[in-house]
Each structure stands twice: as C-alpha cells, then as structure tokens.
Amino acid sequence: MALCLLMVCACLSACGGSDSSSAASTASTASAEGGEPTGSGAAIKIGGTGPLTGGAAIYGNAAKNGAQIAVDEINALGGLQFELRYEDDVHDPEKAVTAYNTLKDWGMQVFLGSVTSKPAVATSTEANSDHIFFLTPSASSTDVLGGVENPLTETVEIPRKDNVFQMCFVDPNQGSASAQYIYDQKLGEKVAVIYKNDDVYSTGIYNSFAAKAQELNIEIVSTTTFTDDTSTDFSVQIADAKDNGADLVFLPMYYEAASMILIQADSVGYKPQWFGVDGMDGILTLKGFDTKLAEGVMLLTPFNADSEDEATSKFVSTYKEQFGDVPNQFAADAYDCVWSIYNALKDEEVAEGVSASDLCDKLIGKFTSSDFTYDGLTGEGMTWDETGAVSKSPKGMVIKDGAYVGLD
Fold it and tell me: Are residues 51 and 64 in the same domain?
C-alpha cells in the first residue's frame, strides 16, 4: 500500500509539471502572435467594430490591421500593455451595437469606435451611456461627436458626447477644406456635386462644402443625389453635370459609388476634373476596376503611403510584410489612434483592473488638455478640442500612374 501511494504521488506531481509547462508555452505563443501580451499586470483591453466582411470590408480590415501593428509595437516596449479585439459590424448600425455589446462583455476598457459613420453614430451613443472612451479612426460624421452646428441650419441637433473623439477629419472640415483647395488652386470654374443623401458621411461633407463654396463665390451649377437603392445607375447625375457645363465634379462619397460614376462618365465621353475625399481611398485596389479611369483624380487625405519619412516607410513596410498590401489612410488613422492612447496613458498611474469609466476620465482629461499633442502618420502636432474633433492639416493627392502623388 505504501508503494502504491508513492507511485500515485509521483504521477500527480508529473501531471502538474506538464500542465505548467503547457501554459507557459501557450502564453509565449499568444504573445508572439499578437494575442494577449506579456508584461506585469493585465493588459488594457481595446475594442473596435468595423466592416470586416461585405462591400466596405477594405475599410474595416485596414483599420484592424493598422491598430494591430501599433499594439504589437507598444507591447514590445514592455510596461503598459494593450490587447486588441475587433468585431465585424458589416457596416450596419444594428450589427454594430451587437458587436459593441460583445466587446463590452469581453471586458473592453477603451473603444476605437466603429470604422464607418452610420455604425459609429449608434455605437458612440452606447459608449457615451456606458462612459467608455471612444476614439474612432475614420467615422467622420459630426453626428458621431454630437453638439456640432450644421453650417447651413446653424442648429445643434444632437447633444455633445463628451467621451467621443475622432482621429479623422470631421466631415465639415473635409467639405470646407475641399472647397478652399479647389478655390485656391483654381481647379474649376463651374462645379457639380453628386452626393449620397441617405448617408451622414456624404451629406455632412456636402453641407459644409456648399456653405464654403457660397462664401468663396464658387459657382455650383449642378447638385444631384443618390441613395443605396439607386447607387448603380448614375446616368441622370452625369448628364446633369455635363449639360450644365461643369468642368469639375466633387464626389463626397466612398470609392464604390465613385468608381461607378467614373466608369459611366467615361462611357459617354465626359471627362471633367474629379475631386474626392478620404472615402475615395481604396479605389485603386477595387477588384475589376480599371485604374486608368482614376488617372488625375484629386482628393484630400491625411496619409500618403508613398511618403519617404522614416515613420511612414516603416509602417508601410511592416503592413506589406504582414498583410501583403499597401496600407490606406484608414489603417494609418487606426495606428495613430492606438499610439495616441498609449502616449496619453504612458506617464499616468493606471492600476491593474482599472474600470473603463475611470480610464475614460483619464483619457478625456488628457486629450482635452492644452499640453497634450501627438505626432503621428496622419499629422504632426495633433490636438483635440472640447468638441472631440482633431486639428491637423489635410494633404492634397492626385492619382498618377496608379499611385497617389502628393500635391503642393
């Protein structure tokens, strides 16, 4: 009996040693693959939602990938650690709220928001109610922030959400900056606008563009719209712009609809100057689209993957190596989101297991402080005001030989 007891104890000891070794091996593998990071204390859980499948997946996956690169770089430094998780919202507000709740159940402490504007309006409301810090890379509608005046109606329709911030240009800034750029560069004497009137992103940019164009005496000779249900046939809009002699057409929309407009305009021999916004980024990677049709298209964007500065070159190289593609501005903005959060917290006392609400208070205080600035891929000396909007300068780009080329 004594011999049997000794044998049982030896077996139990051996089993315990085996489990311990396995756990260490698993933790090491997770860290190497960008999973839960190593380091003292629990990692801060950062969540995000975006279209990882469907027609807008190029935006969601780019943001997810850019954010992951930043998390991996930060975790490699030691000290403050992050853990990242993205959920698919298929560019749908209801699915975005479901994805948000999944992240909340996971224990999310900081929210990168939703990648596109419609879902972000819904999830920003949820995050505001839960007092979770929200910093979206690319949802640029003023409805995401709340509390911003419509330049045409001068009314505030949604109260300010004090925990909500944007890394991207807010829509009015894109619209007014585009009008100013067209005016300064004398790009067109007669301007047409085609925008999506059931989309807060497109209508927000249009409203501020129209207001600034009126201020600058830019002649808008044609204004036409479309919706989700009419986003495949643009013959009426193109004919109206052409018949009214528009030599420049402003397209405040995402690249899928813009690609259809370029194809259909080419088929009727209409070749004005085309001018887009950051949603145009991605048109060169659209499957089946002849990129020659985008030659000469101009747009304002905060990021140029062809830039030769050290930080951009490193990011682009890493992105290509890990994901086999050239990053767009959605990836760069998400990368900047994570690094700006890190910079805001790295010198702060962050207790293990800190609540999302307490962390939100810390981040709001830091981001709205006059002493806090951030230099990133998409801007230098970036600051945020009490509205949650970022202050940075857009870059003018033109598509030349199938690539973005910076303009003066």
Answer: yes
| Torsion angle defined by CA atoms of residues 163, 169, 172 and 175, in that order, rounded to the nearest 10 degrees | -170
- pLDDT at position 204: 87
Q: How far is CA 252 from CA 102, 140, 194, 277, in A?
A: 32, 12, 7, 6
Q: Could you tell me if residue 375 is inside a domain?
A: yes
C-beta pairs of 312-315 under 8 Å, 24+ apart in sequence:
312/377, 315/66, 315/69, 315/377
Say what percent of the chain tops pLDDT 90: 66
How many H-runs (helices) and E-runs (strands) does the chain carry?
12, 15
Q: Which residues of 356-367 are buried (b: 16+ CB within 10 A; e: fewer)?
A: beebbebbbebb
Same domain as 235, residue 143: no
Instruction: Say what the pTM is.
Output: 0.76
Helices (H), 33-150: 57-76, 93-106, 117-130, 142-145
Give pLDDT < 50 ranges for the chain. 1-40
Same domain, 97 and 111: yes
- Residue 128 structural domain: 44-169+308-393
pLDDT tens sequence across 243-278: 999 999 999 998 899 999 999 999 999 999 999 998
- Tell me: do 126 and 176 sit in the same domain: no
At 140-185, the pLDDT tens digits run 888 899 865 555 555 555 678 999 999 998 777 889 989 999 999 9
Question: Is 332 within 8 Å of 304 (Cβ atoms)?
Answer: no
In a domain, 29, yes or no: no
CATH code assigned at 271: 3.40.50.2300
Instruction: Give me the residue label for tokens 């780009």.
Output: 397
The type of residue at 366 is K
